[in-house]
Amino acid sequence: MRLRFRNQFKIILVLLSCVVFYNEYVIYTLQTYRWPNLTCAQDSSCLRILLVADPQILGEQNDDSPFKYIFNWDSDRYVAKTYVKAVSHFEPDVILFLGDIMNEGTVASDEEFQSYVQRLSSIFVTSYPMKHVWIPGDNDIGGENKPIYPKKLRMFNDAFNQPDFMSIKFLNIYKINSITQTYPKLPSHHIIMTNKTNIVMSHIPLLLSPGRFTGSVLTKIQPVVMFSGHKHAAFHLQTTLDTMFVSKVMAMNPQSKNNVIDIVFRQDTYHEFIVPTCSYRMGVPNMGFGIAVIDKSKLSYSILWSPRRYEQLIVYVVVVISVILYLITVAMFKMASVVCRNIQYSKV
Q: CA geometry: angle at 13 spanning 7 and 15, to 5°?
């Protein structure tokens, strides 16, 4: 009996090891085989852009659970693993971080804020040089349904010390702060004289808030495409300057038939891609990273969808409960057999 139990225990350990190995390693590699391969044409120069939206790394104030450090560790580890896979698969030239970098930036103390910045540097690590561009979101500096905190904005700008406008090869990148409704103030002749392709990055989607500010961004910057986050889901929006209302909305998910969107730039048409969150802790079913291959006349866009972490955690819960129930059943049968044996001995 003891030998049989030991063999059963070894089988349980092997099964648990297989489940952990699959959930923590294999599934991430298998997911990359489902990802599209966007590449530059051989006869054209282009830039590969990776888009990271709403990682919202968890803080230390809003969760009173004794397991919060384990939850934070698992969330950071998930984002880091999927990010490394995305970078390795796509090999971007530029990475745009579209705000809501932290979940508790607005309420964090100065020490907590700096610790979150350090955590970010350990999560978004790359093995080769590339350009990182950061903008804040409402969870970093306030806004939307909360007041804007000037101190947090200064701390964010100090931590991610960058200009509001960057020029990389043929690309002009404009950092739009849709929270404070500000954008880089450049000379009026700048856009014409640079003869480059203009793109915009914003945390809150611009085309979903048509008005004076959005109209000013479109007319003065004349972007061929805009990238934003905030909604935690993936959409492609399209409009014209004449209407200023979204004329086309296309939701994107892992089941979408058109997993790659190709666009030829036109002066009278504006496109905005809302990038999904990359964190499973935002409570949405689909997480991922946006990717774009862009040159002076066209763009190809898609999403690298991440594995569903909650499904993996549910598997862990089911397996652990099954093992516990099995062990309890074995123990009960063993106790019952001992009791029966003692009863037989007592009758003798």
A: 105
Question: What is the reported pTM?
Answer: 0.88
Pinpoint the alpha helices (H) of the chain.
Answer: 2-21, 27-32, 68-90, 110-123, 138-141, 150-159, 190-194, 212-221, 309-347
Per-residue pLDDT tens digits for 224-247: 999 999 999 999 998 876 666 666
Output the pLDDT for position 311: 87
Give 47's contacts (C-beta < 8 A, 6+ positions apart): 93, 94, 168, 169, 170, 171, 293, 294, 295
Task: Tell me the mean pLDDT in the region 268-290.
Answer: 93
CA distance 216 to 183: 10
Task: Give pLDDT, residue 343.
Answer: 66
- Per-residue exposure over 139-178, b if at least 16 CB sit within 10 Å of its own CB, e if not: bbbbbeeeeebeebbebbeebbeeebbbeeeebbbbbbbb
Which residue has 């984002």 as its token pair?
A: 79
Alpha-carbon gap, residue 102 to 135, rounded angstroms:
12
CA atoms of 73 and 276, how far apart (whole Å): 21
Best-predicted range by mean pLDDT (33-42, 217-226, 251-260): 217-226
Question: Mean of the per-residue pLDDT values for the chain?
Answer: 85
d(CA 90, CA 95): 11
Q: What is the full DSSP assignment across 103-121?
A: SSTTT--HHHHHHHHHHHH
